[in-house]
Write a structure and sequence with these properties.
This protein has 233 residues and is mainly α. It has one domain. 83% of the residues lie in helices and 0% in strands. Helix 2 crosses helix 4. The longest helix is centred in the middle third of the chain and has 29 residues. It is globular, with a radius of gyration of 18 Å. The N and C termini lie far apart (62 Å). The C terminus is likely disordered.
Length: 233
């Protein structure tokens, strides 16, 4: 496997996720986040893939049941993505409004999806299977990538809802968000196992429905205000 193939695979994984990143960043166009921190969040998501591979290999070795294995993989990925967000953004001075949490969670998720997609594309690209490469890339662009986004965004949504609350409420909200993200991701993984073409289309339809819900949730988070502001209003 030569360097050119690796570069093409990386570009094929990263460029499409940039399209989604631009789309979601537009939700925070009034007070946009620093590009440096966005780039760092994206990179942290990429690096999380490497750690996830190690833990997922361990899970594969110790878990024989296919369904449980896919559920474990979903849990590993969501926890690692949240850790990346926590390290890079949660204590940053730039996380100063509720919507920011969703933006950083989504950015990390897209970084994770970018490298993961590149790894999925690498094998058929190396084998010269251009059609398989294109189909794999397209399916992950409209499917798996959005699963990462929706799952991680659920954590950001819970953080945003509790943005002006006390530490206990914030902690509980994060815990609920992580559980929700794992459940959403695991549901996709389980639904896609041994799916027929028709069922796969239904699963992708469900993912796009979740994206619509996510857009609505953005508006809900934008409306979160401090209690003093709410009383004045």
């Amino acid at each position: 496997m030569n360097l050119t193939t690796i570069i093409y695979a990386l570009l094929a994984g990263i460029i499409p996720t940039f399209i989604w990143l631009i789309f979601w960043l537009r939700e925070d166009n009034i007070h946009p986040e620093p590009r440096r921190l966005i780039a760092l969040s994206f990179l942290a998501g990429c690096l999380s893939v490497i750690i996830a591979i190690i833990f997922e290999k361990f899970a594969q070795d110790v878990i024989s049941n296919t369904a449980y294995k896919y559920m474990a993989w979903a849990g590993i990925e969501e926890i690692l993505k949240f850790i990346a967000v926590a390290i890079v953004a949660l204590n940053s001075k730039y996380l100063d409004e509720p919507i920011d949490a969703m933006i950083y969670c989504i950015t990390v998720a897209l970084g994770f999806a970018a490298l993961e997609n590149a790894l999925f594309i690498l094998s058929p690209l190396h084998a010269g299977e251009l059609t398989t490469t294109i189909v794999t890339g397209n399916l992950r662009f409209i499917g798996a990538t959005l699963v990462h986004v929706v799952s991680s965004a659920s954590i950001g949504f819970m953080i945003g809802l509790s943005f002006y609350r006390g530490k206990i409420i914030k902690t509980l909200s994060i815990a609920i968000g992580i559980i929700l993200s794992m459940a959403l991701h695991a549901s996709f993984n389980l639904a896609i196992i041994n799916s027929t073409t028709i069922n796969t289309l239904k699963v992708f339809g469900g993912v796009w429905f979740a994206v619509v819900i996510l857009i609505i949730l953005f508006e809900e988070v934008k409306a979160v205000k401090p209690k003093t502001t709410q009383r004045i209003a």
